[in-house]
Design goal:
By secondary structure, this protein is of the alpha+beta class. The protein contains 9 helices and 6 strands. It has a 3-stranded antiparallel sheet, with helices on both faces. It has a 3-stranded antiparallel sheet with strand order 5-4-6, with no helix packed on it.
Length: about 280
C-alpha cells in the first residue's frame, strides 16, 4: 500500500498561540511528510508492502520500524489535539484518580516523564491489559504497542515539536499542551480495541511472502513477536551489587514504568541500589 500524509483535523493556525502555524507547517507538513516518504521507499518491493502500519510497528526493526512508528506516533499526536478543548470526561477522570491519585498529580507525573526524557522521544499515557493506566517514556520512535499497552495519549518531545515556539523550554511546551488536549478523544480510546490486536488478524491481510501462504506468514510473525516479547521481559542483574531489574515491575521510583524492557531504559538511568550505570548490568542467567 502507499502511505499518504494523514489529514490534519484542524486548520494549520487553529492551535495558536500554544502551537503556531509555522510549527505545524514544519512539524506536520515537513517532518511527518518525510517519514511517510521514507516509509513508502523502504517497503517498496518487500513483504511489508501490503501490511498494516500496526503490523510494521510490531514486527519490523531498524529504519523500517523507525519510520513506520514515527508515522503512527505523529498521526496519533496530532489527532490528540484540538483547538476547542472540553473538560476531561468523568470516566477518564475517575481512572486517572484511581491510578495516579488526582488529575493534578497525573499531570505533574506526566510532565516529569516528558521533560526528563534524555534527547528525543515521547511521553505516553497507556492502558495495560487489566485496564490500569501507566505513564511511559519512549525514546526516539518508541511506541508502547510493542510492550502490549494500548496508547491513549502522547506528547511529542522531539525538539522539532517545540523549538520554533519555545526554543529550549520543553517544560513550557508541555504545560501549554494541556490547553490543546482533546480529552474526549482520549477517553474514547478507552473503548477502542488495542491496535496490537490486529496482529491476530494477519491471516486476513492480503500478503504473500515468497511461496508462503498468508497463514504461514501470520504464524511466523506471531512467533517472532513472542520471541521479542520474551527477550523484552528478560531480567537484568547489576554485576556490582546484585540488584535485579525486573521489566514486569520496572523502577517507578526512577520514572521507569512497569513493562519497560531493559533496552528501553534511558541511558542515564542508574542502579537504585549502588548508583552504577546500565553498562554494569547483564542478563540474569
Amino acid at each position: 500500500m502507499i502511505y499518504t500524509l494523514p489529514p490534519l483535523p484542524y486548520a494549520p493556525d487553529a492551535l495558536e498561540p500554544q502551537m503556531s502555524k509555522e510549527t505545524i507547517e514544519y512539524h506536520y507538513g515537513k517532518h511527518l511528510q518525510t517519514y511517510v516518504d521514507n516509509l513508502n521507499r523502504l517497503i517498496a518491493g518487500t513483504p511489508y508492502e501490503e501490511v498494516s502500519l500496526e503490523t510494521l510497528i510490531l514486527t519490523s526493526t531498524g529504519p523500517l520500524f523507525n519510520n513506520a512508528a514515527q508515522v503512527w506516533n505523529h498521526t496519533f499526536f496530532f489527532n490528540s489535539l484540538t483547538p476547542d478543548p472540553e473538560p476531561m470526561p468523568a470516566e477518564l477522570t475517575d481512572l486517572i484518580i484511581r491510578d495516579f491519585g488526582s488529575v493534578p498529580a497525573f499531570k505533574e507525573k506526566f510532565k516529569k516523564a516528558a521533560t526528563d526524557i534524555f534527547g528525543s522521544g515521547w511521553a505516553w499515557l497507556a492502558q495495560d491489559g487489566k485496564g490500569r493506566l501507566h505513564i511511559i517514556q519512549e525514546s526516539n520512535a518508541g511506541n508502547p504497542l510493542r510492550a502490549g499497552f494500548k496508547p491513549l495519549l502522547t506528547i511529542d518531545v522531539w525538539e522539532h515539536a517545540y523549538y520554533i515556539d519555545y526554543r529550549n523550554r520543553r517544560a513550557a511546551f508541555v504545560d501549554n499542551c494541556w490547553e490543546m488536549i482533546n480529552w474526549k478523544k482520549v477517553a474514547a480510546r478507552l473503548h477502542e480495541p488495542s491496535p496490537a490486536a490486529r496482529v491476530a488478524d494477519l491471516a486476513e491481510e492480503t500478503v504473500v511472502v515468497g511461496t508462503a501462504t498468508k497463514e504461514e506468514f501470520a504464524e511466523a510473525v506471531a512467533e517472532a513477536i513472542e520471541e521479542d516479547e520474551e527477550a523484552d521481559m528478560q531480567r537484568y542483574v547489576c554485576i556490582i551489587c546484585g540488584w535485579v531489574y525486573d521489566p514486569v515491575e520496572g523502577d517507578p521510583d526512577s520514572g521507569i514504568a512497569p513493562g519497560t524492557p531493559f533496552k528501553d531504559i534511558p541511558d542515564d538511568w542508574t542502579c537504585p541500589a549502588c548508583g552504577v550505570g546500565k553498562e554494569h548490568f547483564e542478563p540474569e542467567r
